[in-house]
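Obj.: predict assembly geometry.
Materials: sequence records (below).
Method: joint structure prediction, all chains together.
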Amino acid sequence: MTIYDVSEKAGVSIATVSRVLNGSDNVSPQTRQKVLDVIEAYDYTPNVFACGLGLNSMNTIGILCADASDLYSANAIYNIEQELHKNNYTCILCCTGYKLADRQKYLNLLVNQKVDSVILVGSTFIYDNEAENEYIREAAKEIPVLMLNADYDCENVYCGLCDDFKSTLQATNFILDKGISDILYLYNSKSYSAMRKLSGYQSALVQRGLPLRMEYMQYFPGNHADLTSVADFLSELDGTLRYGAVIAGDDNLAIGAMKFAQKKGLSIPRDLSIIGCNNSILSRCCEPELTTIDNCLETLCHHIVKTLIGILNNSEMPQKVIFSGELIKRGTTL
Amino acid sequence: MTIYDVSEKAGVSIATVSRVLNGSDNVSPQTRQKVLDVIEAYDYTPNVFACGLGLNSMNTIGILCADASDLYSANAIYNIEQELHKNNYTCILCCTGYKLADRQKYLNLLVNQKVDSVILVGSTFIYDNEAENEYIREAAKEIPVLMLNADYDCENVYCGLCDDFKSTLQATNFILDKGISDILYLYNSKSYSAMRKLSGYQSALVQRGLPLRMEYMQYFPGNHADLTSVADFLSELDGTLRYGAVIAGDDNLAIGAMKFAQKKGLSIPRDLSIIGCNNSILSRCCEPELTTIDNCLETLCHHIVKTLIGILNNSEMPQKVIFSGELIKRGTTL
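Observations (raw structure tokens):
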């Protein structure tokens, strides 16, 4: 049984059936009763999206992430999903990859599907070239856009962030305080968040009057899960650089550095200190366990959903909230 | 602009607009042109779900998993999503948790939303008590149901599986061939897949005339990510059991066993051999790297999507396909 059958049997238009389903006042009591009788007689279950057609709401939130197999994203999706379901929202997840054209396509699709809001997971959704962020501004004209760990100023865009600058600054200071000043910084992304981390590392050095040496900031954009290629990358650098510590923008990279140290016979942390970022499960798999930055992902996810529910209930919500990360000290640092 | 406005301006019913949007033949050329003119004049973008209203199809697939933060599920979702998008399908992901009532709720929701099909990720969706599988049989009356690594006989249910029995049997034989016959088996789930693995372990012993000792099959149902609690669990067992190898139903458990061995000062693999399962990234983070069973998740995901597309195109597709896993030999075994 479809909405067309109900319309036919009740002798009313589809628009009227839709109005009844959506509880609109714009239907006479007699017509309403006729429609409800047919619905009851034929045990018709309305298509949830068909209901949404008239209401402009179907209690559905779109989630966009670049790659759901990335550990940070997977945990974010899990936490956001749990919180949304507690609040009776359903999620549509789209894994967009990193190309702007694909992201535009998905975001358009979700907006056209009349989702109530979208959540973009990760700062890679913001581009340096402001013209490329048009797709977000366009979406925000239609529905609230929430960004997890990205920073973007625009009406109807709400951001929850971890202060990646501060936590990397603190991690770098922690190493400098041990008397180690030759610190290799490894990163695998040029997202906003990744650039803030790099900037935290640089500021710690500058604040102590230490030189910024480009060769100590190595960009390694390979597959995030390929630990061997990180180790190989460091082996190739070997001989040209001397360093007593590695700070990495991601736990995967840090564990790749551990692989390199183990292959070379270096003792961790005696010969080499290593700090990762994300406090992922990987940081507890290695031996010694990895010192890492906990960027409060769970807190961020709870905040994003709380903000979203507030907006949808017409409450005034803050457009930007910044949380602080924390250095979790384990066996790879002195 | 909504479908209602198009209908009003073209002077036709909503059903007619929907028929035009869906490319139905049941509209006169003149009427079709009237509708298309309005759509063009007002630059109307149809709501994708509204289009689906008439077609019984909105090119959307529902994916259900218990927990998207579980590494196996996260990788499955990623691979399935990528393949579906190549075929122009959108996904709705629901993380259901493990309770039957929640699963029923989500599956009903998806069926009512007229998704084209659903994919259930993991064998935990099948219950031992056949009455509890009613929710799957009900859904299969409406739409094709695909199951990733679960086995269920029912019309309109299609399964793609890895032979977990055979791969665990082979892993156990690999250890037995090294002359080690005291093998602890660790598992953290009682899903169909988990029981098949346990059964593979048991069969290997039985085939060699070795005794099945219940105390050598330990069920540890804690949080899959909590490595410390696995290590603590083994510490508590210590003294009561002697074993030269651990085979675990999941890489997390195997790495927990490595933590225990390291704490106790055992050398891996000299004093203790360890085999995990899933060939997850965790298996490459630890030192030595973990010998583990690769249960061909990517192949399974590709197969599931290929089957789904075939069914939706009215091709005859096999209801059950079983793939073989492979033991990846690394540093934790002799």
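Conclusions so far: Chain A touches chain B through 53 residues (CB under 8 Å).
To do: check interface contacts against the pulldown list.
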